[in-house]
Design goal:
This protein has helices spanning about 5-55, 90-115, 125-145, 150-170, 185-220, 240-270, 280-300, 305-330. The chain is about 70% helix and about 0% strand. The protein is an all-alpha fold and about 350 residues long.
Length: about 350
C-alpha cells in the first residue's frame, strides 16, 4: 500500500503541537514544585527555630540531667493543597496540560500508523514518539491512583528531550515495514516492551531523586546546610522514593521477561532459531539480568539504599545502550533504526 502523505504530515504537526504543550506543562510543573518546596522548607526551618527556643526555656533541676524536649518537624513530602487549603493551581494546570499534550501526542502516533497502514513503531523515530507517549500514559495512570505530581517535572523533561531528539535526529519519512517486521508479533512484542520501558523510566527518575534526597537527609541530620535545590523539600523522603522505585521495577520486570520470551518466539518464526546471539537479543538479556539482580538483592540480600539504587541505575543505563547504541552502531537482525 502507498503511504498517505497527508496523514504523515498531520502526524508531524500533532507531534510538534504536543511538544509545545508539554513545554508549557513542564514550566507549570517546575513552578509548582519550586513554590511548594520553598513553603515546606520555610515550615521546616520555622519548626526547628521554635523547637530550639522551647529547649532554651526549659529549666534544669538541680542535680538532674538536662531535660530535652522532643523536636517538632515540619511536614515532609508533597501536599495536595496550597497554604490556604485550596488545590495547588499550578499543579492542576500542569496536569491538565499534560493530558491535553498526551491527546495530541497519541493523535500523532495514530495518524503516523494510519499513514503507512501499520503499527507505528517500525523505526527509531516511531519507537521514540510512541514510547514517550506510553511513558506519559503510564505516569498519568499511576497519578490516578496516588498523588505523584511531584514527579511530573522529572517525567516531562526527559519526554521533551526524547521527542526533540526524535524530530531533530531520528526522523524518518513514513514508509511500509521491512518484510521481517510484517508479523503480528510486532504488536505483541513491542507493545509490551513499551509499557515495561515506561515503568523503567519512571523508576529511574524516582531512583535518582532518592539518591539526591538521601544525601540531603544526611546533611540535615549532621546539621550541615543542604545547599541549593529547595524544590527537593517538596518531595517524599528517600525511603518512600525507594519503595516506589522498587514497586515500579517489580511490575516492569515480568513484562520485560515476557518481551524477551516473545522476541525469542518471533525470532524462531522469522529466522528459524530462538536465539541467534544478535546484539539486540544479547542486550535485552543483559537488561533482564541486571534488573533480576536488583530484585534478588532487595529480596534476599537485604540490599537497600544506595547499593540497590546503583543497580537500578545500571539497569536503566543498559536499557539506554540497547536503545541508543545497539540500534545505531551494532549491525544485526534488528537493525531497523531507519537511519541512513
Amino acid at each position: 500500500m502507498s503511504v498517505d502523505t497527508t496523514l504523515a504530515s498531520t502526524s508531524n504537526s500533532l507531534v510538534y503541537s504536543a511538544m509545545a504543550v508539554y513545554a508549557v506543562a513542564l514550566g507549570a510543573s517546575a513552578f509548582d514544585l519550586a513554590t511548594l518546596g520553598e513553603k515546606v522548607g520555610a515550615k521546616r526551618r520555622a519548626a526547628s527555630r521554635s523547637a530550639a527556643r522551647r529547649e532554651e526555656l526549659v529549666p534544669q533541676a538541680a542535680g538532674v540531667g538536662t531535660i530535652t524536649v522532643g523536636r517538632t518537624t515540619a511536614p515532609t513530602g508533597p501536599a495536595p493543597l496550597a497554604e490556604d487549603g485550596t488545590p495547588r493551581k499550578a499543579a492542576g494546570i500542569a496536569t491538565s496540560l499534560t493530558v491535553l499534550a498526551l491527546l495530541l501526542h497519541l493523535g500523532g502516533v495514530v495518524t503516523r500508523g494510519l499513514s503507512a497502514h501499520r503499527a507505528p513503531w517500525g523505526n527509531m523515530y516511531e519507537f521514540s514518539v510512541t514510547g514517550t507517549a506510553v511513558v506519559v500514559l503510564v505516569y498519568l495512570a499511576v497519578l490516578s491512583r496516588r498523588d505523584i505530581r511531584w514527579l511530573s517535572t522529572f517525567v516531562l523533561a526527559p519526554v521533551l528531550l526524547s521527542l526533540g531528539l526524535a524530530v531533530a535526529v531520528l526522523y524518518t519519512d513514513s514508509a511500509p515495514l521491512v518484510p521481517a517486521l510484517q508479523s503480528f508479533w510486532l504488536i505483541i512484542h513491542v507493545s509490551i516492551a513499551f509499557v515495561s520501558s515506561a515503568l523503567f523510566v519512571l523508576a529511574f527518575s524516582t531512583t535518582v531523586l532518592q539518591l539526591v534526597q538521601e544525601r540531603r537527609e544526611v546533611q540535615r541530620a549532621q546539621g550541615r546546610p543542604t545547599g541549593a535545590g529547595r524544590f527537593m523539600e517538596a518531595l517524599p523522603p528517600s525511603a518512600d522514593l525507594e519503595r516506589l522505585s522498587y514497586r515500579l521495577i517489580a511490575i516492569s520486570f515480568p513484562l520485560w521477561a515476557f518481551t524477551l520470551v516473545a522476541g525469542a518466539i518471533w525470532a524462531e518464526v522469522a529466522w528459524g532459531r530462538y536465539w541467534n546471539w544478535d546484539p539486540k537479543e544479547v542486550w535485552t538479556f543483559i537488561i533482564w539480568v541486571v534488573y533480576a539482580a536488583y530484585l534478588h538483592a532487595r529480596a534476599t540480600g537485604g540490599w537497600g539504599g544506595r547499593r540497590a539504587a546503583y543497580l537500578s541505575i545500571a539497569g536503566f543505563a543498559c536499557l539506554m545502550v540497547n536503545y541508543g547504541v545497539v540500534n545505531v552502531f551494532f549491525p544485526g537482525n534488528h537493525s531497523y533504526s531507519g537511519l541512513s
